## 1
Amino acid sequence: ARTGVPEVVFAQGKTPERTLALLAELRRLDPDGPALATRCPDEVLDRAPDAFDDVTVDRVGRTVTVGALPPPVGDVVVLTAGTTDVPVAREATATLAALGVGARLVADVGVAGLHRLLSRIEDIGRADVVIAVAGMDGALPGVVAGLVPAPVIGVPTSMGYGVAAGGRAALATMLAACSPGVVVVNIDNGFGAAAHVVKIVHRG
Amino acid sequence: ARTGVPEVVFAQGKTPERTLALLAELRRLDPDGPALATRCPDEVLDRAPDAFDDVTVDRVGRTVTVGALPPPVGDVVVLTAGTTDVPVAREATATLAALGVGARLVADVGVAGLHRLLSRIEDIGRADVVIAVAGMDGALPGVVAGLVPAPVIGVPTSMGYGVAAGGRAALATMLAACSPGVVVVNIDNGFGAAAHVVKIVHRG
Amino acid sequence: ARTGVPEVVFAQGKTPERTLALLAELRRLDPDGPALATRCPDEVLDRAPDAFDDVTVDRVGRTVTVGALPPPVGDVVVLTAGTTDVPVAREATATLAALGVGARLVADVGVAGLHRLLSRIEDIGRADVVIAVAGMDGALPGVVAGLVPAPVIGVPTSMGYGVAAGGRAALATMLAACSPGVVVVNIDNGFGAAAHVVKIVHRG
Amino acid sequence: ARTGVPEVVFAQGKTPERTLALLAELRRLDPDGPALATRCPDEVLDRAPDAFDDVTVDRVGRTVTVGALPPPVGDVVVLTAGTTDVPVAREATATLAALGVGARLVADVGVAGLHRLLSRIEDIGRADVVIAVAGMDGALPGVVAGLVPAPVIGVPTSMGYGVAAGGRAALATMLAACSPGVVVVNIDNGFGAAAHVVKIVHRG
Amino acid sequence: ARTGVPEVVFAQGKTPERTLALLAELRRLDPDGPALATRCPDEVLDRAPDAFDDVTVDRVGRTVTVGALPPPVGDVVVLTAGTTDVPVAREATATLAALGVGARLVADVGVAGLHRLLSRIEDIGRADVVIAVAGMDGALPGVVAGLVPAPVIGVPTSMGYGVAAGGRAALATMLAACSPGVVVVNIDNGFGAAAHVVKIVHRG
Amino acid sequence: ARTGVPEVVFAQGKTPERTLALLAELRRLDPDGPALATRCPDEVLDRAPDAFDDVTVDRVGRTVTVGALPPPVGDVVVLTAGTTDVPVAREATATLAALGVGARLVADVGVAGLHRLLSRIEDIGRADVVIAVAGMDGALPGVVAGLVPAPVIGVPTSMGYGVAAGGRAALATMLAACSPGVVVVNIDNGFGAAAHVVKIVHRG
Amino acid sequence: ARTGVPEVVFAQGKTPERTLALLAELRRLDPDGPALATRCPDEVLDRAPDAFDDVTVDRVGRTVTVGALPPPVGDVVVLTAGTTDVPVAREATATLAALGVGARLVADVGVAGLHRLLSRIEDIGRADVVIAVAGMDGALPGVVAGLVPAPVIGVPTSMGYGVAAGGRAALATMLAACSPGVVVVNIDNGFGAAAHVVKIVHRG
Amino acid sequence: ARTGVPEVVFAQGKTPERTLALLAELRRLDPDGPALATRCPDEVLDRAPDAFDDVTVDRVGRTVTVGALPPPVGDVVVLTAGTTDVPVAREATATLAALGVGARLVADVGVAGLHRLLSRIEDIGRADVVIAVAGMDGALPGVVAGLVPAPVIGVPTSMGYGVAAGGRAALATMLAACSPGVVVVNIDNGFGAAAHVVKIVHRG
Ligand SMILES: Nc1ncnc2c1ncn2[C@@H]1O[C@H](COP(=O)(O)O)[C@@H](O)[C@H]1O
Ligand SMILES: Nc1ncnc2c1ncn2[C@@H]1O[C@H](COP(=O)(O)O)[C@@H](O)[C@H]1O
Ligand SMILES: Nc1ncnc2c1ncn2[C@@H]1O[C@H](COP(=O)(O)O)[C@@H](O)[C@H]1O
Ligand SMILES: Nc1ncnc2c1ncn2[C@@H]1O[C@H](COP(=O)(O)O)[C@@H](O)[C@H]1O
Ligand SMILES: [Mg+2]
Ligand SMILES: [Mg+2]
Ligand SMILES: [Mg+2]
Ligand SMILES: [Mg+2]
Ligand SMILES: [Mg+2]
Ligand SMILES: [Mg+2]
Ligand SMILES: [Mg+2]
Ligand SMILES: [Mg+2]
């Protein structure tokens, strides 16, 4: 694609028929890479294996990838603060895999249990880029960016209750992070974080 | 006082005359403890030394204390994330001093430079109570509460710009902190945090 | 636990299997105290009695406690403004019980019927700490804090409609309370208020 | 006037010349009652005594009344929570006086010092209508409405800081008041509360 | 009741059993007037006729009144802007009826069809008090208050979509109404408007 | 211009030198029509008459027009609810004049004094397009759109206090207007409303 | 109709019976034009063909039109940024058709794929008026208005997630559009945009 | 520095003395690279040339750089939508220069004049990374990201009025941008965008 990121099907609010048809069409237009659909409702996840030959379904991240995955380039670490943030992180890792970037998922290393994060920080710091996914207080990306040289992308999630419900508190925390260089995407937008990383890695 | 916290003059929006007169009156009504005024405009800070005999003026915290300080009880640590948060922290320490609680101020230990916080965490953890003052992302109280057994009170500050301006982002972060037991007061309310601590320490 | 508050399972957004497994694991890791899960969906509340030997289920507060309760220390009063605030108050009392703090629940003493509160205020005032749970206008903690020497923790609830729906009006009222020393936790966070109290009582 | 409330000059944002001219014109059009201007800047307050013969200037409430006051009907009590709320209350009492309603101002009876309110509640309860003016937590109208049979009108004020700054917290508290029958006007709108009362008293 | 408005059951969020039991208890405590429940779910509306002898059920306004209605005093007009605002208006008329105040409901006279309002304005203007219920732009109370001498109480409703959804746009419009003397209650709070009117009429 | 509206200088936030230079440059690039600057600070208004030969300065609307005005086409009525809304209306009329559209300004016909509006409605209704400028409750455009066949463009203004301060209440009222066909521009954007009208009139 | 736009049934929140009866009544009152209902629930869409003789049902736009369509006047282009915005666009085209204005729908030309828009811009630019429907970032109307001489009306949609959910982000983008002359209607209000256009076209 | 971005002085809210002293100290601690201060008040900009030998002052971007600039690596394009966005862009370019990254500033290419952007898009597209700075509608980053393969970082600015004032509208637009891979920093945070780019370029 002209922009380095091919068209991807946003399945939310579309009929399953339409999503499956769009995947088939993308596949036909661009046979060199896989076709990807995100935010798939259950019915798409259920029907995709019968609809296509070479298909990868991630029920947690709600993605469908049709076609062989390209060989992965680079080393991206995707962190989550809690276990409830994992679906958003999985949307990111599925997108990275479909677009040919290598990724490792490290879950449940939020700042309430800082030792779990610190004990792995050397290894995390070796990544090319870090994606940090967090809901509630959204403090994780700022803390990580103060500890490692890799660029850090924060993904706020809508998990949480009270003032945290919907993700705006986590979003504001990340935008106001005191560690320099944290950038942010929309709430729950694992796909967008991954797309930015793909542009970095493939250009780098 | 019936509630354990004596009346205190809130000087903002009052004329200097009225604030100084109220201090004199509180002094007369309750000669056993000092009289305190918070959020004092420059003119009150300037005129207080001439108006009273035994007076302590904190130009940074904008407080005036009239009368001898009671002997301090307990050990409270007041942390700040940045140097711009210090005035709010000084409102807290002046209130603690006036109401007979011992306090130490540890400034500029925000999470962007986590090593500065970690290198002192043992000492901080020995406090009876911790007050953590932070603007911008407001991540400090949650990180500290995950590291020490002392109860932690978060004070969001209005410092910052963009989404952080006015302090609502820091407030939401603290309310949504994942570490259990963080409680919060109004933005810039160093006095309120200190009043809560006074009730804990004098009752404990 | 290093912080004085052991890990607790936040069951909302987890599968019942996962919550029950985490309770079993916490029990195994720390056999000295009970294991607690909060915000449990119906299925967890239903299945817990068969899954464990020594289990306490609070259907109103939506908590499950596994293992013998420790002997209670201290005297905490948990007030509610209305009867719809009781579930949040029960999350607090179940947490206090599981973590070894003694608590009394006094319901429906909101400021619309001030005499009900005033007739019990002496007794309430003898508590070590007061937790005041209120939705709609959220005025209760401020009124109580002006009447008793105990530290007061306000818990806003999401009950209410119109401007009060979701709890932000009650939250703002409590943060702006004119009585000195009121501290606040997130909307509906009975657990968090209890965790703060546990740290106070066990340290005191 | 057709609506029972004559036209009144809203002086904010007008030049002093224009405000004084409008007062003269209202006086000429309706010689039976006084002409009133609210939210007057200093220059209007300064020049009014020279501009008119029979003029009452309230520097605190920022009102100018031109012409003899009508004989007062009825008994309205105007309460304030703090001393900073007095200017808004004075806008209300000046309006009531200009429109022929009798009013008493009772200041500084907010809920942080509940005994001051309770010791006068019998007397307050004898009023035809109560206007309760409060900033910060805005709890006063709800508490009063639970204690007296008179209709209660709440006026939130913009005084306060943090979440209370601008008056939206007090406004929401009053709208969500649990005591039945509290009605509310815009923030700082002492005039509007008085206008409603005038309609009640003159119609009753 | 001490405040002129007896206790009323707020049935939302209560079990039908509890609501019906509370109605029976209110009936027993105060046999002189009827007992009222508002915001009743379907099951309460269905079961009330079998549970009580002398019962009035308003399925549109979702109210249940047990006991003979008192003879009505006064003349209140309840206006609605659209037909979707009628349920809130019916909560008001049922409350007025239960508390002994006479009311007339005039529906669908919003400002988009101004002639429908103007053709009846003389008759409306003869009321003791006007309650104006409106969603979407909420312009009705301000327009009416500029046309009649009666005091006007605005009730914003949550009907509407886009910026009007939830009622905050209508609430702000009413608070900012340019006609003097409009007072406002919480969104959808037909009961609260009626309670204020009851206090006015019975005191007048 | 390709879009039917020539480039216009937005002078706010620019130095007077830069604004005057940009006006000269626009004049040179397009000698057929006048050059316009809006939101001019005092210094631009003061210096413009010396800087250019054929210049029109509107001190109320804060506009500077350089060059002869084109002959006006069409008939646009610009209404204001109050006198404080006149500066925004004057920005609209100056823009219309500069771009060759005929306009009449009718001030102070807000809905609080509905008779003033109704007595002129026939005449207003003859316009090609109506621009209705209003702050506070912003009810004017909706009422007018229900009375005349001309398309109505609402311009909310930032005038007002309390919930109306800044213009968001008026904006929401206009967007939620029940009369069909009301369209809206940004707060205080008299220029934008005029630009839309220019496109309509010149295309019609 | 006096205003150029006949009454239209807003079916949301009405029973199907009532909507069908209102359509029949509008048909009877004004036999010259068709009767229109918008925001129809499924049951109305299902029953309309049996209830009326000459009926057009748009299941995507959720409209029902009863009676022969008038001959179309003018040329309006309705653009959508994405396919999820089509239902709102179809509400607009159905309204235009019912009120006698000719319209073309051009879907999925959002700014993320700018070439699709640019390749058709000449043709779009020939329209009398352009309606641009967009959710998420809402950038489409501003970009189009910078490219064509036709007046542009922006319709924000509630599609989207995170900060875009509910349509307020798209609404603000359109109000702040830098291209002169963009006007805006309420979120999802395809009907309102069409009503404005009808007034322009029939008056032009 | 451990994180790849050295400490930088945030001069806003600091005394000029303190900022100049901190610059001297940073210079001493790390003589290999220049020391940078951002958001400098006039007095710092005025005094810096006398205080240091080898100093670069950017009055527009409000930055002070002390010490020789490192040789620039990479090619970053910094775009602005309007000329009022230039100060924020200059904070970014000064930061890039101080930290050894090559940058080109391309101003005033917002989407209202799309041709100015399109005529340079090939050249822009050759950059390693693009920073797009925009206020008002904030549409620029999304449009650019749909046209070039480089990663795009959006910086919303606080310029604008009405709904755009303060920058939240531009922020939301950028977060909701439909083009994949746009990431965002806090409002007016040119420094933060540059810091992210430095990490990318130096790691790539
Ligand atoms: N900095 C502060 N923030 C909040 N409340 C305060 C502060 N200082 C004093 N107060 C409270 O304000 C009360 C006095 O208010 P006033 O009667 O207006 O002087 C004191 O008794 C305290 O409860
Ligand atoms: N009701 C609650 N509200 C807020 N936090 C809670 C609650 N219950 C448990 N937690 C916290 O959530 C942590 C567990 O989160 P998780 O790892 O997602 O199960 C516990 O250690 C507590 O700190
Ligand atoms: N989709 C719509 N959005 C906004 N207003 C509408 C819509 N459809 C119809 N209306 C308006 O609502 C009026 C009828 O409302 P009602 O009396 O509640 O049926 C019509 O005359 C239109 O002005
Ligand atoms: N313009 C800026 N915006 C946000 N953060 C900044 C800015 N300039 C410097 N900083 C950060 O603020 C830190 C210094 O803060 P301080 O200790 O208050 O001087 C630096 O190390 C940067 O991480
Ligand atoms: Mg966890
Ligand atoms: Mg620092
Ligand atoms: Mg109760
Ligand atoms: Mg006081
Ligand atoms: Mg109707
Ligand atoms: Mg006027
Ligand atoms: Mg598309
Ligand atoms: Mg420009």
## 2
Amino acid sequence: MLDNGCVRMPRIRVSKVTGNVYQIRVDDVETRFFEGIWEIPEGVTYNAYLVDTGEKRILIDTVKSRYALEFLEALRGILDPRDIDAIIVQHSEPDHSGAFPIIYEAAGKPKVYAHPIAKSIIESEYGVRLEKYEAVRDDTVVDVGDGKLVMALVPWLHWPDTIITFYPEEGLLFTCDVFGVYGVLPHIDDAGLSSSEWALYERYMRKYFANIVGAYRDWVVKNLEKLEAKNWNFSIIAPGHGLVIRKRIGEVLEAYRAWGSRRLNPRKATIIYSTMYGAVEKAALYAAERLAETGFEVHIYGSNDEKGIALGDVLGDAIDSRILVLGVPVYDGNIHPITRLLVDLLCEKVAAGQVTSIISSYGWGPVAKRIVAEKLEKCGFRVAGVIEARGALPANDVDKLIENMIAAK
Amino acid sequence: MLDNGCVRMPRIRVSKVTGNVYQIRVDDVETRFFEGIWEIPEGVTYNAYLVDTGEKRILIDTVKSRYALEFLEALRGILDPRDIDAIIVQHSEPDHSGAFPIIYEAAGKPKVYAHPIAKSIIESEYGVRLEKYEAVRDDTVVDVGDGKLVMALVPWLHWPDTIITFYPEEGLLFTCDVFGVYGVLPHIDDAGLSSSEWALYERYMRKYFANIVGAYRDWVVKNLEKLEAKNWNFSIIAPGHGLVIRKRIGEVLEAYRAWGSRRLNPRKATIIYSTMYGAVEKAALYAAERLAETGFEVHIYGSNDEKGIALGDVLGDAIDSRILVLGVPVYDGNIHPITRLLVDLLCEKVAAGQVTSIISSYGWGPVAKRIVAEKLEKCGFRVAGVIEARGALPANDVDKLIENMIAAK
């Protein structure tokens, strides 16, 4: 029982991915803010994997610390943890390494494979010493008896320590946060997903990509090229979050290629606004209607005093929208603090030459053009127009703005 | 019935302040974010006033637009709105002017007294024309038959249009947002408050002050001097938010003097942190214990992936704390976006020479000193020390930090 009288019910599922590989997955529907900022009502899973060939038993990653004991119990359902021969830490972020200290102890301090940065972080953060340690480099090999695991460094996806692991005998690629995703779906893999479920999955994947990997898009492109050059023949992706991908390997790779190279969806528009008196809201809704009539897929996010803005979702839709409309409230002679945060995040995570307009209604005086337009232009958006007015924003002006955005080359 | 199946129950109360003056108060427990950013689980009231001498009927301010119809109904319980002779708009912010257009119409477009900026905002935002309008200046007088109302401009408390109104015959000062406060208390005035209730009220008042007025503290001092020079002999303060103040006029004025002039509480410490692995949290809690042992009143705010940081409350406690400890998480090689927002707000609203320390635990590399310490120092905090470490923060270092802060002149 927790303090609030609720019972905590983590769901751990163990399933077979291939003959020699188990997945141990935690379904986390408790975390409200991933990374302390991204709202995830859809939840998130943490996936660890156990390669057990009978001869060798290798654990790949663990889970968040609060699920450590349940994770250990699930592991015990498969084997005696002391039989684990080695642990591969593909990435030292706490959602995958938090349970490490407990599992490491329970397993009798086996050999650990990790990037030197991951070693240093784990030792200093968790106060453990990795007694038998091998620094992972490109093509580091772990013998698993009837085969081998081969590793590759994929730096900055999304930490400097990130590695992925290939299991050629089973055609399996373990990717940790790469191809990661939010959401807790009832499925284990993508084989049984309907097309609408897949659309939702892709949406969660794009949101995760924008939030977590967005700042490192150049590295996505570089690492995909590196992966292709390896010619690893894999038919299953086993990520650290979400479903095992069996059917849509091509789609997943293509999505990463598109988002990494800043490709935009030419028929998609995202509108983000906040309103004080309602003037900006009225203009934003009007713009949404006009864009929808013209055949755009329109996503609209509004915030006010009853609901905040879901920053994670906003970024997920902004990253591939050709058209962006930003409704900017004025506050204390500046732009609203939350809008400042939003503009910072747009710049850092998703700027990709989106054709962008700014609409702003002010009481004392205009500030949106000076502050927001300049900043967005500098960081990689293409500002196509700004409407600023005291009070209502004329529909005519919004019409012209939309025409300009659609016509922009 | 609302969409979510809940019934909206605004509470409007009408009460007599003096023989000729009614208060019409809305208790808003629905707004989650005041100004779209400050969390207010304690709610907020909107207070309008009606001066009715039998001869003249003057309405001072209205309420938020969503309560306009209920407000009109309450008004109808006192008089026929068409008998209203004039409306004074002390401040055009929507929480006091939102219901204006409906009331203005229902009252048959009476004369309006307001600052020229308020006139311009109301006309452009609400699309109404003030047909009979008088621009308020210092000492503008409104005749109420058996007496008069006298007005004074108090610019930048907290908008350029803000005015206050004195009713000498009743010893009443109407102050709109000045001396405003969050919270919905069951009382109508402060006469029956216990000392612990008053302490809570003062806390809500300080939070409101920091959030709403903090950026204009120099104007608080100027306007208080202006008010004193007027020698208005008032015995009741009738604010736009909160309780009517009858008993503690001196305390309220003194609080504004203290906060406006950046006076700090020498025995108060506020600790604000966010944590990824727990290292910063451990050090923050340790610092809190040490400071409490030394006799400090300690306030501590922590955020993680299950709860955000209540920015409004943080500012309310930081504004008069002599000691401030900031636990800074590192994110994407920068400080966490929410911490960036927090540092911006601390600088803009509450910087007052607080003796400040920064504690930061990093994985890849240190950034807190370079980014946060510099910014805080520049904007008016006195940075007494920075601890940065990979992993755990040594208790010895925290001890030294606290000694330095306490010893700082």
